[in-house]
Known about the structure:
The complex is a heterodimer of chains A (239) and B (251). In chain A, 79% of the residues lie in helices and 0% in strands. Chain A is an all-alpha fold and 239 residues long. By secondary structure, chain B is an alpha/beta fold. In chain B, helix 2 (107-118) crosses helix 3 and helix 3 (123-131) crosses helix 4. Chains A and B meet through helix 1 and helix 5 of A and helix 2 of B.
Amino acid sequence: MSGLLRGELSKTLSTRTLFAFVIGGVAFAVLNVVIVAVASGTLHTVSEKQEALSCLPILMLAWGVVGAAGEYRHRTAAPAALVARRGRGTLLLARLAAYAVTGLGLAAVTTGVSLAIGLPLLADQPGPGLGAAEVGSVVAGNLVACVLSVIIGAGLGALIRNQIVGVVVLLVLNFAVNPLLANVSEGLSNLTPFGASSVLSRMTHNTTLSVAVAGAVLAAWTVVVAGAALAGERRRDLA
Amino acid sequence: MVELWVMTNTHTHVMGRAIVADGLTKRYGRTTAVEGLSFSARSGAVTGFFGPNGAGKTTALKMIVGIARPNAGRALVNGVPIESTKPDARQIGVYIEPCGAHPGRTGRAHLRALATIAGLGRGRADEVLATVGLGDAGRRRVGKYSMGMRQRLGLAAALLGDPQILVLDEPGNGLDPSGVRWLRTLLREQAASGRTVLLSSHVLSEAAQTVDDVVVIDRGRLVYQGSMHDLDARGESLEDVFFGATGGVYS
């Protein structure tokens, strides 16, 4: 399994795609900090200040979809499956784990940038400051949200197997379906992967869903999507 | 041709046959790509797998190596159903177009990743790059490769585990004359060392210099299986047999 993981990891690190997402993630982190901490006026509460440090789970979902679906677009999934010494399910599991590792790295970089720029700016804001516990909880939430989001994205990519369709589906769900659900019921919207990851990363606050429950909801979605992707991979042709 | 079919508790196979296609059928919706295809490829020989465009060659090869599942029938490799075996680069090396390398990745990185997944040393990537004549191009991105270079990269991936069996789908496409000669020599050496080679090709004149056995399919069905020796004895060419078996009509 470690050989599969290392091989899949080296695949993700040997193209420019991941680095494009790193640049996008860092750009978003800077933009988010500036907009929330500087341009949106006075931040009175801890949760408002934590929002300035949140990551962008949709970016992680997109990275997972683009990377994993690219395996089928470029037909790189078949050569790996033909040499893996394990079943296709195990190979996909290793691929999802490799994407989780990249998600952790991506989250660490973007969260680090948010902290480096955001904490000095937030220190100038009135009201209660962010203590180590509050900052630590944002960091943990970002890391968990990003890692689980990347796994969900990679699972969707393996199911859909088409990068453009995958990203379009993602955007429609995030920017059309989820807001519609929120209009019907905020609670329902928070139970989607998009809602749960927003709560977990503190992008959404003043919600009835606790961070812990949001984490559990996102973990459940991760298991469901990864399970469906594994089942599909075992049953479907590779090329 | 005399073949000895052996029934065991778990497997049916042909003695001395490394690859056996046993009634393989593949349908895509209402289209039947391969229907009831049975043939075998022996060890120590190059078996040519021929057919017109759309005859089902690539689909059949995909079923034989296990990346496509047959609707009926089965493929046996060394007597074991392919779906029961774990893929191993040391057992079967496969090249089916396209080469399966990300255009943004270097050829070397592509092979190193495959070598790691296969449990081989990363140094093996450089060895096979040199074998296929891509030693100097290994650090270039695959998107910058010519068609012939991509063919060579695909062949390098197939050779990664120094396999006992090679399954190659039109490996000569895009190769320059020296590449064609190199490929012919490589395949003959593989067969001479007791290994099994199953290759599809449209270039009959070149294939006639390479193959020992001939399998021709048309519209997904077997229409001829025999040896080059038999053809020579009858004074027929591979081209004669191909057109005779397929009616000379390309679909």
